[in-house]
Design a protein that fits this description.
- The complex is a heterodimer of chains A (115) and B (115).
- Chain A has no helices and 11 strands.
- Chain A is mostly beta strands and 115 residues long.
- In chain A, strand 7 and strand 8 form a beta hairpin.
- In chain B, the strands form 3 sheets. In chain B, strands 2, 5, 6, 10, 11 and 12 form a 6-stranded mixed sheet that branches. A 4-stranded antiparallel sheet of chain B has the order 3-9-8-7, with no helix packed on it. In chain B, strands 1-4 form a two-stranded antiparallel ribbon.
- Chain B is globular.
- Chain B has 115 residues and is mostly beta strands.
- Chain B contains no helices and 12 strands.
- Classes of the chains: A mainly beta (115), B mainly beta (115).
């Protein structure tokens, strides 16, 4: 199974700044995803990170606010731009190795607090 | 849009006893996948069990089993011989069988295990 690491594990940021979260996988994967988990809530898919092309965003999420890079098959970044306290959440990346319906492996998450 | 409903925000079980967590979902699709994920305080999302909708047989993984009622759109998780390490948030999730890798999560059930 894929081993996923995220950096940073947590951060406290000021309103109006931006934070880039890194997701590294120990093997090449086709599908990488970014989720948000607001305090006490479930996970919501932000976008699918596509290698070599623009990310595919879900309804309610836009590229200007959450730019995503996917330079290769083992790495992706999510930037949370112009942050506000409402962006305080856990951000998780996940990967799917073997095709649709297979297990998605999740990273340990990045806990973001915006003051 | 597909929705996943977990009607029990919190549950508790005595160690070594059995507990059942409920999940219902709404979809017009006939081909899909269902999952139960566990999220302990460490935040790491861990797949507990998965079920393909086309399979009539209920999935089982050691102490974890599901009761999949396709017509009723119900997917409950039974944990037998509960252990202290089972204490976590449990999320039910749905994935469409074709055209999407998106996981739609329920709001979660917090399970406490009483020694």
């Amino acid at each position: 199974s894929a081993v996923i690491s995220q950096k940073p594990s947590r951060d406290i940021c000021q309103r109006g700044t931006s934070l880039t979260i890194q997701c590294q996988v120990d093997s090449q994967v086709t599908m990488m995803f970014w989720y948000r988990q607001q305090p006490g809530q479930s996970l919501t898919l932000i976008a699918t990170a596509n290698q070599g092309s623009e990310a595919t965003y879900e309804s309610g999420f836009v590229i200007d606010k959450f730019p995503i890079s996917r330079p290769n098959l083992t790495f992706s970044t999510l930037t949370v731009s112009n942050m506000s306290p409402e962006d305080s959440s856990i951000y998780l990346c996940s990967v799917e190795e073997a095709g649709r319906g297979s297990e998605q492996f999740f990273g340990p998450g990045t806990r973001l607090t915006v003051l | 849009a597909q929705t996943v409903t977990q009607s029990q925000p919190e549950m508790s079980v005595q160690e070594a006893e059995t507990v059942t967590l409920s999940c219902t979902y709404d979809t017009s699709e006939s081909d899909y996948y269902l999952f139960w994920y566990k999220q302990p305080p460490s935040r790491q999302m861990i797949l507990v069990i998965r079920q393909e909708a086309y399979k009539q047989q209920n999935a089982t993984e050691n102490r974890f089993s599901v009761n999949f009622q396709k017509a009723a759109k119900s997917f409950s998780l039974k944990i037998s011989d509960s252990q202290l390490g089972d204490a976590a948030m449990y999320f039910c999730a749905y994935m469409e069988g074709a055209g999407s890798y998106q996981l739609t999560f329920g709001k979660g059930t917090k399970l406490s295990v009483i020694p």
